[in-house]
Amino acid sequence: MTSSQVAGPLRIRIFLPDGYAADGHRRWPVAYFLHGGGGSVDDAAAVPALRSDAMITVIPDGGLKGWYTDWHLQNTAMGAANWETFHLEQVIPFIDANLRTLPDRAHRAVTGISMGGSGALHYAQARPDLFGHAASLSGGVDFSMAAFRGAVLATELNLPGAWCAASTSGNGPCVDYGPYVDSDAIFGSPYPVLGADRLWNAYDPAAPANLTRLATTGITLYTGDADLIDAHTAMAAHTVKARLDQLGIPARLVDYGNGATLAPGCDGGHSYRCWAPAFADYVPRLEAEFATAPD
Asked: Cβ neighbours of residue 227 under 8 Å, at least 6 residues apart?
């Protein structure tokens, strides 16, 4: 598809339940999956649990480094980059208009890995009227941490290095994040001087003011801690959980450490070897929540 909000072409991948065609009157819950940096809609093929027969799964294009926000600068080599507007104001209405969905927050979830994990919490905070459930897997969910600001800058500049080597999408070494753009392109200046980093702070999923917007949202966080990236996502996830606890907002945190308690193939690192079994744990829980939600 194309959109005036984001330079294209763009793709949306959709997994329909097996029973969708057979029952022409039934309406279905919807889960949105946000891929990681350097990834694409095809990454969802690495997560078999997303092919649920109890819900529709929608995987919208999030860009190589879209970061699920409307960019500060729109005149970069990437062109128009209003990703948040595209997803929340165009993709969701398009899906509800063209598929038999249950178009209410109780039957709509947003989930994501890495870059998409921060995007999932951010979207749930920005539009609590849309999403009743949110899950972040190895998400960069604390933008006060220098590691995550550095990760955004690395994707903007398409820099090689440790973050590249581990890959924010779990696709392998040195993922291509697309053309070089200015280091202020996405969130403006990252430096906390005289309020220059105001866009970072406004987006920050860990900011208490943003977390309060999740008061009626089902929140789940997954993370390992056994490589360079997930050592930081674990710290961020625990910060978010502690702040939610202080606010009296229920949330489920699964820190699977080195992966031994999650699945035999998971090494606790930043990859689909862990994310796929984490979704295998999460999706049945989400299906149960959808099943008990009032129509």
From this structure: 166, 267, 268, 269, 270
Contacts of 148 (CB under 8 A, 6+ apart): 118, 140, 142, 232, 236
Closest CA to 44 of 121, 108, 137: 137
Residue where the block lists tokens 């690495």: 46
Please provide the average confidence, as pLDDT, over all residues in the chain.
Answer: 94
108-156: per-residue pLDDT in tens? 999 999 999 999 999 999 999 999 999 999 999 999 999 999 999 989 9
Which domains, ranges and CATH numbers included, belong to the chain? 12-292 (3.40.50.1820)
Distance CA(216)–CA(195), nearest Å, equals 31
pTM above 0.85, yes or no: yes
Check residue 263 and report its DSSP letter. -
pLDDT reading at 161 higher than 80:
no
CA distance readout (Å), 192 to 161, 182, 204, 206, 287: 24, 18, 13, 16, 42
Sequence-distant (6+) residues with CB within 8 A of 97 are none
**Separation between Cα atoms, residue 235 and residue 116, nearest integer Å:** 17
Tell me, what's the pLDDT at 176?
83
